[in-house]
Design goal:
The chain is mostly helical and about 500 residues long. It contains 17 helices and 4 strands. Helix 5 runs antiparallel to helix 12. It is globular.
Length: about 500
């Protein structure tokens, strides 16, 4: 039964189990009866999801963070390019994993298959407590700051207003994703165009300045270059935050049409495009603005617009707000499938794996992430949140890449529609380890310590709620009642069940 309103479809009962499939067959329809994730995303949608999620707040906020760590515009530009290349290598590693293990859930599914249940749960734990809600909070706060800026030309918008509007926009986009996945995809596609316009304005203006006045503030690009490894690692944190999301398409593998072809093609289209656009945009920043102006700005794109656009400077906050709005929508859509997959595997409450019988969307998972994202709005320092995200994501990338190498060793003859040269995952793993270790020697050590503590706190949670099978009767009853009431409240069924 086909339903255009959402992302789940009901498949006839006479299909084989997916566990009996391998190779290209594994990428076809989920082979259970009942309600399932539906393949609605083509190559354009996949490319727009990657581009739309990556190009969000980062390119308009992170240039300051990269420059602080790099010390000079020249090294900062090299770090931006390196972050793009690193993200492309990581995405190709994930493409091999995504086509070998064609399940939604991305990192979680790959860690579960290669490293086991406990590491997979720890990733799920840190993703739900740090990576996803913090990323959503940064995007929502950036959107609100930029959209309110024209109303406060002489000062910053009031902090309470920014946070309230951030909460409202998270709720609005969550509602859209709950109601109709096609609408959510169209928002991502449409606002991807707005991102391109905003960046095109910056790039074209920068090229015009270079053509008329030369390199300007970029005439001595490597002056005051910082060679401290720890600070450079922190600069990579800010740069990689701007590229965050290159792995999110793997979260929705089960919803991609012909994933063995479209997943790697979407990667090859979107990531080189993002790298080129980011490099040119940063070059424009460095030509037009001095180092001091960038470091003193909380909104580099707005400062850039004020410097060059005159009476039309208001368009920059509007374009940037549109860009982050689309990125936030993608960040709400894709990670909800991570929650859904974790619940489906029994590592989160079953209630989070429920599929609404009318909209065919995982409403409980979406609302759960929205609640966590709104709670994260209470953290005041954006750059602290960026460090939390970057460390946690580098840890997840390292775990997945290690898993890829383990699967190469344990299952050398497994069907791999995409198989990259072994040198790429080895290099990627080494760089991830560098990014994990070096910042601990800098001022961010306390922030990294908090992230490590959150990861480790998941171990007792795992053994009490997942590993321990003979739980007290009262605890099982609480869980069963929550699942039952959630099913009634959200009109949901488990995947593979028929609506009754």
């Amino acid at each position: 039964m086909k339903n255009n309103a959402g992302s789940i479809e009901k498949i006839p009962n006479d299909c084989d189990s997916p566990s009996e499939k391998s190779g290209s067959d594994a990428g076809q329809k989920l082979q259970h009866s009942g309600f399932h994730l539906k393949k609605e995303l083509g190559l354009l949608d996949g490319s727009a999801i990657i581009f739309g999620i990556i190009v969000g707040a980062g390119i308009f906020v992170s240039p300051k963070g990269v420059l602080i760590g790099a010390g000079s515009p020249g090294l900062a530009l090299i770090i931006w390019i390196s972050c793009g290349v690193l993200s492309l290598v990581g995405a190709l590693c994930y493409a091999e994993l995504g086509t070998m293990i064609p399940k939604s859930g991305g990192d979680y599914a790959y860690i579960y298959a290669s490293l086991g249940k406990l590491p997979a749960f720890l990733f799920l734990w840190v993703a739900l407590l740090i990576i996803v809600p913090t990323g959503n909070a940064v995007l929502a706060l950036t959107f609100s700051s930029y959209i309110l800026q024209p109303f406060y030309p002489e000062c910053d918008p009031p902090e309470l207003g920014v946070r309230l509007l951030s909460g409202v926009v998270i709720c609005l986009l969550t509602a859209v994703n709950c109601y109709n996945v096609k609408w959510a995809a169209r928002i991502t596609d449409g606002f991807a165009v707005m991102k391109l316009i905003a960046l095109a304005v910056i790039i074209v203006a920068g090229i015009f300045v270079m053509a008329t006045d030369g390199l300007g503030n970029f005439s001595q690009p490597f002056e005051e270059t910082n060679m401290d490894a720890g600070k450079i690692a922190l600069a990579f944190y800010s740069g990689l935050f701007s590229f965050a999301g290159w792995n999110y398409l793997n979260f929705v593998t089960e919803e991609i049409k012909d994933p063995f072809k479209n997943l790697p093609r979407a990667i090859w289209i979107s990531l080189p495009l993002v790298t080129i656009v980011y490099t040119l945009a940063n070059l424009a920043y460095f030509v037009v603005l001095s180092k001091a102006e960038i470091l003193n700005s909380n909104a580099v794109a707005v400062t850039f617009g004020d410097e060059l656009l005159g009476v039309m400077s208001w368009i920059m906050p509007a374009f940037v707000a549109s860009s982050t709005f689309g990125a936030l929508n993608g960040n709400i859509f894709a990670p909800s499938r991570l929650v859904f997959t974790g619940a489906r595997e029994g590592q989160l409450p079953k209630a989070l794996a429920l599929i609404n019988v009318h909209t065919y969307t995982p409403i409980p998972a979406l609302l759960f992430l929205a609640m966590l994202s709104i709670l994260m709005l209470t953290v005041k320092d954006v750059y602290t949140m960026i460090n939390y995200i970057a460390f946690s994501e580098a840890l997840a990338w390292a775990a997945c890449t290690l898993g890829l190498l383990i699967l190469r060793w344990k299952q050398p003859n497994a069907v791999r529609p995409i198989k990259i040269n072994i040198i790429f995952p080895i290099i990627f793993l080494i760089i991830c380890i560098f990014l994990l270790i070096m910042p601990m020697f800098e001022n961010a050590a306390s922030e990294i310590g908090v992230a490590v503590a959150i990861v480790l706190s998941g171990i007792p949670v795992y053994f009490i709620f997942i590993y321990w099978e003979n739980k007290p009767r009262w605890l099982r009853q609480v869980s069963d009642n929550m699942d039952r009431w959630s099913a009634l409240l959200f009109k949901g069924v488990m995947e593979g069940e028929d609506a009754k």
